[in-house]
Every structure is written in structure tokens, then in C-alpha cells.
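Late entry, evening session. Most of the bench is empty. Finally got around to the prediction I had been postponing all week. Sequence below, unchanged from the version circulated by S.P.
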Amino acid sequence: MSEYERWIKQELDDPDLTAELQAIQGQPEEINDRFYRDLEFGTGGLRGVIGAGTNRMNVYTVRKATQGMANYLLKHADGKPQSVAIAHDSRNKGVAFAQQSAAVLAANGIKAYLYPQLMPTPALSYAVRHLHCDAGICVTASHNPAKYNGYKAYGSDGCQVTADMADGIMNEINSLDIFADVKKMDFEAGIQAGLIEYIGEETVSAFIEDVYQESLLPDAGNLKLVYTPLNGSGKMCVLRILDKIGVKDVTVVPEQSEPDGNFPTCPYPNPEIREALQKGLELCETVQPDLLLATDPDCDRVGIAVNQHGEYVLMTGNEVGIMLLNFIAQVKKEQGKLPAHPVAVTTIVSTDMVDPIAKDYGIELRRCLTGFKYIGDIIAELEEKEGSADSYLLGFEESYGYLSGGYVRDKDAVDGSMLICEMASYYKRQGKTLVDVMNDLYEQYGYYKNDLCNFGFEGEDGMKTMNGIMDTLRTAPPAEIAGAKVIGTSDYLLSVATGDKTGPIDLPKSNVLEYRLENGCKLIVRPSGTEPKIKIYLSGKGATRAESQQTIDAMKAAVPGLLGI
């Protein structure tokens, strides 16, 4: 309450915030939710609901975070001038948050390079590396609902910040008063002083060209496409790369073509969710393309629906990752370009079906924690420590994130869109759809099935509930799940595995629990790093599609009891 009173007495320079604070007078629960904590800064930066309060995304929390980053950079500068690249997507307040971040950096004597138009998150990762910056900021809430915005922070390598850097920035942030300790200057004055500079077309073209270097086919012009950027940042870059690979027959979903942070036709703008693709699917009924392509608002994830005899079949992120690995390996092998020691990377929660495919092509498959920064770390390791940058074939996450090159250190839906279209084109020439290809792979390797359950926990009590669930699972693990005995567990926070895979876990510590069952199935519990929810990843395999689905359904039914909800 005291912090609320302090805010309401301030002369705030965003009138929307003042109006909100006045509107919630006499509402203690609402005030508590906005002020019971500060937004937490972690390896994913900040993410929260837009609005007034310390637990909200607004110009004051953004400025404070940026001041913390500035302090951290200056303390570690060793006398070297510092610079930061900044981008934003179509989110509400995105322009203001990006400009205010630049203004705070400028006030601290740090050069800010700012994209003048909305750009994909991977283009920010690219700019950090291309402009030799010391850090990066991308104002985005990725695929969250419209009420959210966020602030992704990047290191000089173009990866999202390490845990050590995030902790260092967080310590700096915690030492600041949100009003008294943040340096500010006028944005236009920063431009005039040369401390803020717009990123030019040269960088954008270089990004597109480096994506194009990952192309595997001379031409994909036989493909017909419907594309939706879901009112986000993908349109310009995706259309440019599709044009370069020869895909000319592209119809953009009109209702979702232009940037709009309210996402009026897709309240949850996530290509994993069928409802977000509904407008695109409706247009497909008229246009009858080979493929519906959808990128999320910051264009680092891409989802597809495939024309299978007139019916549009949505493919999962795992399925696309499986097919991409097989396609890239197959084409490179045909072209005589498969490296001597090829490496692919995926996460601990992604499908096990890639293991036998990788084995068949002689690919070393490395697994890492959820979060593309960990895939980026492995790419860097291949380049810098192992001297084998050309070995890297593909990194993917089950949540629709893909990257086939080392030009950035984040998932890239521009690259993903290009590769998916080339893959569809390649198999179309063989008379196959991507559904046919996936069915062939299932027949060859078995019917692997993955699913995801989400359980939301809003507010202060929600965080306590989430923590309590994880503590209970950790201290009193289940002996069986869905009638199947638990034969092994992995606790990624304690870095130890027991049962069938007893031993230490050589990965960074993370609040993740894995249960392996006697029937070959697997269940992983992980609190989301960006939303107030617990995610349950289900993995199973059966002799037939029906058997695999039956196993997953049984596990899904057991999840609420497992969580005690």
C-alpha cells in the first residue's frame, strides 16, 4: 500500500498509468497484485501484464531494468565504450518501451542502436552480433495474450543472457529506486547527440542474406502458400526470404497482415493453438494452398497446416522438427554436403523420435534445457571450442522453434519458414505432402506421441501454489503414473538422476522434474519461465497410432492427481 501511495503521488509521464492508479483506489486485492513484488528479471528478461505497478510492464519498470543493465555493462566494460541493440515487435507500448530503453542507455553514455520499424526477435540477435554490441534488448512478449509485454535481454554473443549475467543485472536493478535512481534523457536529444542511432537497411539485408545462405534447394517455386504473421513482426522478413527461394504464390491473411498489439482475431497469438490459425484455415478453404504458414508476433516460432486431400492438418512442433532433421540430413547427404561429424540439438522435453533418425544418419544428438539460449550455447561451443561450426545441422524446440545456422543465437521463424517451404517443395516433387512424409517416418520408427498440459496459477497465491506443487513432487515423488511404475527420475535442480539412469546431470540447474515409466513413457514437470503456469510434457510410444494416443490419454488423465489439484 505504501508503494501504491508513492506511485499515485508521483507526476507520472504516462497518463494511462495515472488513470489506472486512480481507478483502483479502494481495491486492496487489485493493488496488492500490482505492488506485492517487483517483476522478476531472469534469463528470459522481464515479462508481465502491461499496466501500473511494480509487478507490471510500464515505462518505469522498463527504465529501471535498463538502468540495471547499464550499470552492469559499465561495471564490466574495462574502459571499452559500450553499445546495445534494441528491437520491438507489434506489442502495445512496444515503441515507447524500446525508445525509453534507448534513452536510458544514452543517458548513461551507452550507444543505443535501434531498429526504426518492428522486427523479428532473431533480427535483434543478429544485430547484436553484426554491430558488435555488448548487449541487446527485444521488447516482446512472444506468443502471450495481448495484455502482456516483455523485455528479452541478450549478451554480446546474441544469446539471451546467461544466468550469471541475469543475476548480475538483477542485483543492479534491486539496488535502484524506480523513480530516483534512473538516469533519463530526451529520446530526440539522444539522437542529436549521436548516442541513439537507427539501425539501417544494410543490417536488415545482411540478416536476410545470411538466412538465405541456409537454403538447401535451388528453387521452391512449385509451392502455393497462405501466410499469416498473426498481426506481428514477421511479414516483411518472411516475404523477402520466400521471394528469394522462388515462392511467389503467397496469399497473406488480410485480417492478420498488419501489426496490431490487440490481436483482434487471435487473442492468444500462438501458432501452437488452432484458434490462432482459424482465419488462415478459413482462407485456405478458398485459396487451397499446399501449406498454411503462421509466425508468432515476434517471429521466432512458426507453425504449419498441411493440405492433405483438401483437409488442413496441423503439424506439431515435434513433428516439424523430426521432418526438418530428416530432410536436412537427407538433402545434404544427396548433395555430398553432410559433415563428417554432424550435430543436431534439441531439448530434454522434445520428442525422443529424433534419436533413431539421428542414429541412422550418424548424427550426434545433443540435448539441453528448455530455452533456445542453451541451443545457442552449443552452437557457440561447436564454433569456438571444438572448431567445427560446419558440423551443426539443426536446433529445435517442441514449441515451434527452429534454427539451422549459426548466424544468430536464437530460434528464427524466418529461417524456419524458408526450410519448411523448401521441405514441402522437395517432397511435392515426389508426389508427397508433409503429412505423407510424417506418416512414412512413423511407420519406419514407431508411433511416438507427445502432448502438453498447462495449469495456470495467477497472482501471489498462484506463485505459492506452484512452488508448493514442485516441492511436494520433489520430496514425495510418485511411485506410479497412470498405472505404470516409475522406474527413474531426474531432478534438474539437484542435478541428479536415479533409477534406470542413475548419476549426475551435466546441465545447468533448472527447476524441472522428469519421471520415466516402465512402459517407455515419460512425464516432465516444469514451471514456465515466462508465464504463471506449470507445464507437463507427456511422451509416449506405441506400436500403432491408437495405442500411442491411448497411453498419452491415460497419462493426461492422471496429471491433476499428480499435481494435487
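Two things to note before I forget:
The chain has three domains: 2-199, 207-445, 447-563.
The chain has 18 helices and 23 strands.
Will write this up properly tomorrow.
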